[in-house]
Amino acid sequence: xxxxxxxxxxxxxxxxxxxxxxxxxxxxxxxxxxxxxxxxxxxxxxxxxxxxxxxxxxxxxxxxxxxxxxxxxxxxxxxxxxxxxxxxxxxxxxxxxxxxxxxxxxxxxxxxxxxxxxxxxxxxxxxxxxxxxxxxxxxxxxxxxxxxxxxxxxxxxxxxxxxx
Length: 164
Known about the structure:
Blueprint: H1 3-34, H2 38-64, H3 92-118, H4 122-154
Helix pairs in contact: 1-2, 1-3, 2-4, 3-4
């Protein structure tokens, strides 16, 4: 399978990782919101971070195919407007919820990129991949902010209890 044929597969894999990351970020946020089991919340956040990084790598692999010239098949298209992403939130839970939202958006855009790629609309596929990557970076940012806040407030040890 060539890299060109595999771009849609890489986008699909990235979308799956972003969806999983969103689930883990939401789980972590829930722990912070109820004020229990911060150690488990930190673990959930770490797993979410790993899924986001896997998704970024899959997106990078897919985008390598866009650099390969194929002028006869390239479709000229007007790209949709770029998405403005601005949220900055103060608490761990809010950061994890923001990260989850960005991972969900990234998953959506990778799915769209895969569909455009399979339809040989490479310009729109590349545009969707770029938007997905931006969302992924915002997810990593929010995950990092939550982690820094956790360490500043709870250190290596903190309140720990099972979820009720």
